[in-house]
Amino acid sequence: MIKAPTFGEFIMDRQAEFPFVTGQLTRLLTDIGVAAKIVNQQVNRAGLTNILGASGATNVQDEQQQKLDVFADDAFMRILSSGKSVCGIGSEERDGYVLCGDQGEGRSGKYIVLIDPLDGSSNIDVNVSIGTIFSIVRRVTPLGEPLQDQDFLQAGTAQVAAGYVLYGSSTMLVYTTGHGVHGFTFDPGVGEFFLSHPDMVFPERGATYSINDAVKAKSNQATQDFIDTCREAVDVGFRGRYIGSLVADFHRNLIHGGIYLYPSTSDKPEGKLRLLYECAPLAWLAEEAGGQALDDHGRILDRVPKSLHERTPYYVGNRHLIDALQTCRKALCGGGQGTGLT
Ligand code: P6P
Questions:
Q1: What is d(CA 68, CA 43) in angstroms, rounded to the nearest whole number?
Q2: CA nearest neighbour of 120 among 50, 49, 72
């Protein structure tokens, strides 16, 4: 039996695909794998080490910080800033940027990391899958100079690597550097991620729609029309599935096919999910896997953020399902045929 490559072996073998190869991106991706193992160990024993529950603090999102949120943020910060590859980190759990590199001034290292250290953390106490989402871009200001906002606030098309870790029934690391989407499953007995899902792509057709039903009623008309059409397609196998943990919903839809929607609503016209460290990395994975990802106006990857914690409406999944949503939008603007859903 041929041993599947570990995550480290795989990225080393593929290093030649990275533009301007200096080994820094390889080191950075390796560090992400190490941090993921550290977080995974705590997630898997959260109930035993009194690490469950709220930390008592609230984060910049004014959300109750769970103890594991803080642990995950600290773990990724410590590991990523200790390498020589990263000059700055933007985290969901921190108000502002964290400067790394020599003297912690962000002058050395050419990569910026945007990260949601533990997404879906409201599910921690009830043992539902949660995840880490990461996005990596190159700094745009010259090495040696102080970092600027523009180094962090780049469109999704500027990403050089992106991925997620899903702490689920098994723990998986899924990533892309623009050469396909590759999934690795953690073997706790060995302490390694092994390649288990090479070249992941959406199935040709999907029949799952993921939306919080309570949100649908407050969403835009096109989204409501689209969801109603999905509900009417039950007899051709359409079904609703919503875990309430973005990484878990995204991963299921990537493997089985489907569309995830977190629309703009009357009370959250800008949407709920964050552009830089949730939507843009998953949008790139989706496109690399043959799918699409939109906001209310266009392609998520084209959008240039104005702030670190900017939110966005988000629709991501199979190409034909996103097209069907677009048809609902066009129908409301006049024109447009049937949704083409099925
Ligand atoms: P709601 C978790 O807080 C999260 O950011 C995503 O992981 C998840 O898909 C969404 O919010 C759930 O939001 O409003 O349905 O509880």
A1: 7
A2: 72
H helix or E strand, kind and range, residue 239: strand 239-240
CATH topology of domain 7-197: Fructose-1,6-Bisphosphatase; Chain A, domain 1 (3.30.540)
Ligand 1, residues at Cβ distance < 6 Å: 119-120, 122, 212, 244-246, 249, 272-273
Closest CA to 297 of 277, 270, 272: 270
Looking at residue 265, the DSSP 8-state letter turns out to be B
Q: Which CATH class is domain 208-331?
A: alpha beta
What pLDDT digit, counting tens, does each position of 125-164 carry? 888 999 999 999 999 999 888 999 999 999 999 999 999 9
Residue range 235-245, pLDDT digits in tens: 889 999 999 99
Rounded CA gap, 342 and 334, in Å? 22
pTM of model > 0.90:
yes
How close is the Cα of 180 to the center of ligand 1, in Å? 27
Rounded CA gap, 7 and 218, in Å? 42
